[in-house]
Amino acid sequence: MPEPQDGSRTRRSPRRRQAPAAAALAAATFAAFTFASGCAGPPKDGGTDGESYRLSAGTPAAVGELDSFTWAVYAEPPTLDYVSAFDYPQNTVLSNVCESLMRWTPQLTLAPGLAEKASNPDPTTWVYDLRPGVRFHDGRVMTAEDVVYSLGRQMNPDNAAAWAQQFQNVSSVTVTGPLQVTVKLTQPDSQFNQYMATAAGVVASKAGIEAAGRDYGTSGGLACTGPFELGDWNKGQSVELRRFDGYWGQKAKSAKAVFRFLTDPSARVNAMLSGEADGGYLIPTESYGRLRGSGSGTLYFGEGLSTVNVNVTTMQGVLGDLRVRQALSLALDRTGFVRTGLGGAGHVTGSLTSRAAWAGAPEEVRREAFEGLTPTAPDIERAKALIKEAGATGKTLTVATSPIGQDVSVLATAVQSAGAKIGLDVRLKTIAPNAFTALFTDPQAREGVDLFPETYYDSITDPLDLLANFRTGAFQNFASFSDPAYDDLVKKAVNASDPAERFAITAHLQQIASDQLLWIPVAEWPTAVFLNKRITGAPTTIAYMYYPWAADVGAAR
After folding, report:
1. H-run or E-run covering 439
2. Considering the domain boundaries, does residue 382 fall inside one?
């Protein structure tokens, strides 16, 4: 990826994604931040159009095995190389093939992965003791050298890794025993170990990667250890995963998982209704009601750690004036967007971070973090006055849209409508689903685009995951916001070993990002998954991005 590689990734709409010291949030239970009252994520029941939704901790466990199941995804992964796994299609598949040192569980807590133990003997050292006898899909046994090589690929600037920011404080990764790797940091990093549960911590075979050469991730095997191995990849159509019988853990309940690439939202839904696909995540929001009433399966909602925002890609033009950004925000019909764009499953927010991401924070800090944020009620007259004060009446802005799903197209149209109400000429630029994620990786793709809809999900249960994006030079800091004071606060938060101290600093960062409207917050959005009557077992939470969820999918009866 061009541009500095010290920032976070995003995902689909593009949709996108850290962790306090392992102890604090790793101990938090799913119930603690999903169903606690007041300050714990989307409500159990929600919706603004009379419909309701309820967050489910999971789906019923499978009662038997399957020969295969088929899963609908909205786009074909451009690569399955773990260093580039920054978006939904890649991670939805890759999480079942490649494993990391640590594991994000379906309850969004931290657990051992390929490392059976992680210890932190001093603030700048992490020691990983590896599981013995773990085999790669080619039969080779995992070694400490494979771990050093795999993490080294993330740190190699030639690879332009999407996860490079997570290694910015790493000074060395070395073999310190037959099954032991030690990571030395240049400074304390409260989040490093939790990122080892994401694609940043993936371990693949050194020999396998070197043998594949430049083709690694686009053809052949992935040289990983997961419950599935990569099978046939029919470009433009589907990718097949086969159960790996040499897996070290619990074997997959299905002998095969087939991922079908269905870029048209209607085609995805029709495939699920007809049984051509057994299920899928990222359900087109306009189809919630249709799927609920079909009788062919069940639509579940779970914790998403996701917020829907309007990403500001440049401050060189009219958006460089804070008053213009404030005016657009004040003119947005967030309630209408939740009702139409999210199918009523979600709720309006003035926060860039989800409430569930603050689960580990003291109650007082959680309250402070959400006080006085971006107003969510429309105020057209005030917005018009701000545009006039800024001398922006009649100015042109371009917002990207895509037929990925109604959530994207409706939000883009809502921005256009907001602009029209206050004297801005907002134009839409339609981008194909397969090309939409290029907005996050290619500066040329963002040329001529001022704004685009983005659903950001945290890769770890910590609001700093999102707020670190506004550091100078961060990967998703597309508008090139730069404030030394903000940078210093991010550094202090990362260095803070005390969770309460870190969250207090992060709350200050949230206030700054809100005051500056670095992105325009719109709504919180739960994870949605549809399963037909044939299958069950898939997690309902956003953990599917890094947890081998397909191994849990089996026969419903």
Report:
1. helix 438-441
2. yes
